[in-house]
Structure formats: structure tokens, C-alpha cells
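quick one before i forget lol
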Amino acid sequence: MRILIVGIGALGGTIAARALNAGVDVCLATRTEASAKILRAGLKVSGVGGEARAVPPRVAVIEDYESREKFDLILLATKAHDALESAPALTHLLTPRGLLWPIQNGVVAQMLAARFGRGRVVGGLSNLGATMVEPGVYEQRNAGHLLIGELAGGPSERVESIAQALKGAIDVRTTANLRGAIWAKLLLNCSVTTIGAMAGRTMRQYLILPGGGEVFRRAYDEALAVALGTGTQPERMIVDPMPPGWKERRTTGKDYDGWINQILGVYGDLKPSMLQDFERVRRTEIDFINGYVAQLGADHALPVSMNAAITRMVHAIENGAVHPNPARLVELIGNGG
């Protein structure tokens, strides 16, 4: 299987380094020639999973790949908006049975399938924690995995073949309930990632700040209610998606604290990727996370005031009107979130 990885940031770089080190036939696509030049010297990953080094056989900007350079699989490890923008050019690089595999947060796979057909797209997501120390140098922060599945659900030979192709490089797991898995990750993105980014803190740090626990609870509860209200049962990811006492609107006590501690055990000390976007003055994926939940909830007349307020706050930080700070949490509650 010949694979092209598009987007060699923290996630794409970590996957690429481990795949190349394991002998997988992988080429890399970047946005700029400057980045491509750096990566041609080689990739290095350390941290969880051990150290690995590799030199890619081909690194080029997307536009420099010619239609005769065909790939069986194109893994999209870019930001969500970049995946949607680059996909039309990338489809010309696929073999007749080649596939696009987006692993972004939210519903990017569904959007691509609507444009190019499900025959060209499989869905997925990642819970790998990684950071880019510098271009070409990465650190894996947890023992996470990639997930892959058919958008229509059910088992699939092509999904299994992709998982096998990357066996020994990255832990790739298959699911027959991709929609439920996407929502399981979305629930955590809406609460863990965005709230930490706005506060400029990790989850463990922001939960003990004024307003932190309440903002988490309300963002998570709204997102879960939207999932259930639109006919999706999220899968278990780290924790049962239904917090203890949720149906009775009880979010206190030993059981709930234990549920929170399970999330903290995996995400509690990770620097939110959205906070890294703020620091690098990059566009975030907020419209595919809390923004998506807020829009879907509004379309179905479901309460989503906190997710809508979080979306507005993140855009304000993107625009430079405010900056990440613990005070953002109190403001969300005070401003009607």
C-alpha cells in the first residue's frame, strides 16, 4: 500500500516517522517548500513508544505532486479547514480504488464524502497526543491510537487492510460505529481541549479554577444532549460517555469524581492543541467542534448556550480581541454561556 501523508505537524509527523521507521511506503506533502526542505533531512520522534528516525523517500508541497504519482491511501493530518481545501487536488493522486482518510475532529469525513462519494472516503480520528518540538522533530505524549471505519457503519475489508498496512508502526483500530466514535471524541474536544485553550491551562489546572468545573459540565452536557437528541449513541472512549448521574442531572459525588479522574488520567496534563494554535497565531478548528455542536443543536431546537458562547470566545481570541486567561471561564458564565 502506497501512502501519502498530508500535513506534517505534530500528529502527521509522529505518524510519518513511525510508519517510515517500520518500513511502510510513505511520502509526505507539506504546504510550503521551506517545510519540505527541512523534512527531507529526516524525521525523529521520541517519547511514548520509544525513539525512531527515518528519511522519507519523497517530500514535496501538494502542488508538486503530479497526477501520475498515484497513492492507495492519502492520510489527511491537517487542520479541518485545510483538509477541505486541499481534498479536490488530492483526489487526482488516488489510484482507482484509492481512499482519502481524514482524521480531524468533527465531521470532516462526512463533508468530504458528500463531495466525492463514500467510495472515496473512509472516516477516522486520533487520540494520539503529540507535540512538534521543531519541524521534523516530534514527541509522542501518550499511548494513543488511530481509529478508522466506514461512514455507513459496519465491517469493511478495505478498513481492515489499512489497519494491517500500518501494523507495527502505529496502533490503528477499526470500528463498526464510526459516528458514535466521532461523537465520543467530540464530547472531549468540546470540554477538555477548548476550555483549556481559553484558560491557557491544562484540564487538571483549569478544573480547580473559578468557573472551570461548571464550564466543563455545561459544555459536555450540552454536547451529549445534542448527540442523543440527533440519534447518535456515542461510544465509550476512555470513559462511559454518559457521566454518572447524568440522567438525574447529578454531577457530584464519588462516582462523578471518579469519572472525571479517568479523563484526567489521559488528558489531564496535556497542553491543548488549540492553545498551541493560539500561540502560533493559527486558525483553530472551533467551528468543527463547539461550533458544530452549537449549530446542530440550534437546528434541532436543543439548548447549546455554553457551546455557542465558547465558540464566540475562541473567535475573539483568534482575532486578538482577548487572550487566553483563566478569567475567560468566569466571563463565559457571567455573559450568559
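fyi Residues 174 and 183 are 16 Å apart (CA to CA).
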